[in-house]
Structure formats: structure tokens, C-alpha cells
TrEMBL record:
InterPro entries: DUF4055
Native organism: Lutibaculum baratangense AMV1
Residue ranges occupied by any DUF4055 domain in the UniProt entry: 37-173
Source organism, top-level taxon: Bacteria
Protein name in the entry: 62kDa structural protein
Amino acid sequence: MDIEEGIIPQVNGRALDFIPFLMVSHQGIRPSDVRPPFSGLCRVALSHFRNSCDREHAIFLTSAPTPWVSGSLTEDRIPRAIGAGALWVLPEGAQVGMLEFTGAGVSAMKELMEEKIEVMAQLGARMLTTTVNRNESIETATQRTRGELSLLHGTVVSVEAGINKLLRIAAEWVGAPPAEAHVEMSRDFIEATLNGRQIEGLVKLWQSGGISHRTLYENLQAGEVASPDRTFEQEREMIADEGGDMGATMLRLPIAS
């Protein structure tokens, strides 16, 4: 058997001394045996599905009433039909009744399924919920959800590290500076949108001279009202292009007492 000449992968004329492969998990970018973050939720979901199958089967077997007859019946006296138009002529001493489900087994299955639905909702919400109670501040909500969002935060950090490593590999491959290949993913998992009363308070504070135009705009950006990608100067230019004036217009805003 003839052995052909080996092919050595190269990058910019240099031999490739590593495998350009990346494995990302919520615990890092190193290949390791980690527990999937949704494994607990998946196990509860499978258990809920099994309960659903058992409940459907139990209802199928027990939901339809079944007639029964006891006594000494000859062949010609055995009932052949049932319903309003069917007449059963039974011998003296015979008994008849209907078998119907009366136990609590199916109800217990239903309660168990409802409990597992609540568990699944909690398992999913702890990692993905980012809402803020209307009566608590952003700082309080951040402290409250820090532990619940730790898994989501770890996942974002790992994905960001993985993307940056792949970008550096791609940059080196095409001859670009690897150090300049960098991205940052947002860690802002909590909704911090300002409501109408908060916006009104900021505008009133600005009108009274407590803060500057720029500080007002920065607060609107932090409150997810103004675009985070648009600078203060760009916003003023857009207002001017529309024929308005940022200072004059805002000074005439009516402030509710």
C-alpha cells in the first residue's frame, strides 16, 4: 500500500499546531463533563409526560360506565344491546348495575401534574426572569435576582469567551491582528425602563437646573428610553434636522403638579 505525502494544515505559511474547535458550556470553554443547565427541567418535563400518559390511560379504562348482570341467565336471556330502545328481560333474582369510576387515583394524578407544572415554571423562571417589581428599585431587584441569574450570567460569559476566541482564530487565519478581534455581550438582564413619572421627574430636575442636558439624556439612555447607540450630539442633530430645538422644546414641556 502506497502512502501519499502528508498534508500539514497551515495558517499564513505556519503549521497549524492546534485544532480550531471550541466547546462551550455554561461553565466555560474547556471540554469537560458538565451537567446541562436545563437537565433538571427536562427531567421534570419527562416525568410530567409520563403522568399524563398514565392519566389518559386510566381515564380511557374507567371513564365509560360498564353494565353488569349477575344471576342464572340462559343464552336467550343474555342482554345483547343497551340504550333507551333496548329492553332486558331478566329472570327472577337477577341483579344489574353499572360499574363506574369512584376512586381518587385520577384526581391525584391531576394534582401531581399541576405541582410539576409549577416546578417547571420555577426552574425556567429562575434562569430567565428579568422583571422588576413596581415597588422595588433596580438595586433591590439586582440583589434579589443575582443568585437566580447566576446560571444565565455564566452562560453569557462562556459564550462571549468562545466567540472572542473564534474571532481571534479567524483574524489570525486572514492575517488580521487577533488582539483587535473582540466583542462584549450585554450583562443587563434586568429591565430598567423608566416609567412616565420617573421621566417627568428627570425633566423637572433638568428644568430647575439640577442636572445638565447631557445628564438628562444619559439617564434616558440608562432607562432604555433613548437609544444607547446614539450620542448626545447625534440626538441633538436629529432634533435639529426635524426643525426642533432640544432646549427650547423641553423648556415648554408641561409638568403635572
